[in-house]
Amino acid sequence: MAEQAPRISAAPATRLPLPNELQEEIFDLLDTADLAKAAAACTSFRKIIVAPSFLRRLLRRLPPPRLLGFLEDEGHSTPCLHSFHHNSAPVARFVAGAADFALSFLPDHPNLWRIRDASDGRILLSHASRRPWDLVVCDPLHRSYVRVPQIPDHVAAGTRRPRLSWYAFLVPAGGEEEPPLQVVWMMHQGGEIIVFAFSSSTGEWRGVQFSDWHRDSNAHLSLSYRHYAHGCFYWTFWRLDTALMLDMREMNFSIFQLPRVSQGPRSVVVEHGEGNLGWLHLGYNGILLYSRTWQGNGVGAAADWNLTRAIPLPDDSLKYKIVGAADGYLLLQAFPKHFSPQQTPQARYFTLKLETLLIEELFVSLNKGVRNTHLYVNFPPPLALPSI
């Protein structure tokens, strides 16, 4: 009987991991819908896809605008992102699939955090059961957050614990690719407005107070309704043609002259091209655009404003309201002017892109009006604080 040759067991196959560079080349071939599925399927895939270097390449091949949706804030609950069915819908679907808008990565329960502002893809939140300056800034796409350092006692000296009239918001990046994180905390105290501002570039808080705004007995200032343009925040006075301006570079307040049209929540200060300031007023028949040369000190009179354009509204049967303005867009909410008591009117939403002044309808599946909205635009820059 012939002797059988001994069997040699095959060595187990060794699975060599693909280098990240090769995986990036493969992901470059996918559309945004498949990228969202890959990011949701595997943690290692998601880390590659949401890395700043890959997102920059993705942005270069996606058409603008990159308005991804708006965040609805209903008090002490996690924010809800409403995506749009329009020309940036593929990007919005990618972000909705890859990001965690339930904010499950936050410390404590997500429902204990309340959204205060959103800008450049970042979200600012305050804790519901702690001190009002207990703030975090989070990045839903990268599922990360940083705590904003507490305001030091020597900076906050002399301020009392606020009750209701305090506000926290982010300073927009202004086109910088990797901007510092800047947070503003603002409150009323008697007749004074007190502001503290934090920047991650210095790791320090600065403070400023202002008390000259209430000299006019008709002055009513709503700090919850603010605008941002050319490095400054603006708050308008109801029934007056002036605004309170906070220059974030110089960290000082001044009174700013506006056009002589009715003020309030139907108007907004915007950037209108290089070196110009714009004032958009929502009238009954359209949106009026006033413009003037930008002067950082706010010097000027109402006569310096010129009516440059009247923008017609898309549907005369609707009643419009400005419900958001950020990152180069104006968000309009509209309801039918006439409807029967048995009907539930459906809210419709439009954006005005400030660069082109074009109005576009956003087909949102939302059968109600929303009060607190924050536009969500672009991918967030890296989120990190320096060691302090």
From TrEMBL:
Domain F-box: residue ranges: 12-58
Pfam families: Beta-prop_AT5G49610-like, F-box-like
SMART domains, sorted: FBOX
PROSITE patterns reported in the protein's UniProt record: FBOX
InterPro entries for this protein: AT5G49610-like_b-prop, F-box-like_dom_sf, F-box_dom
Protein name: F-box domain-containing protein
Organism: Urochloa decumbens
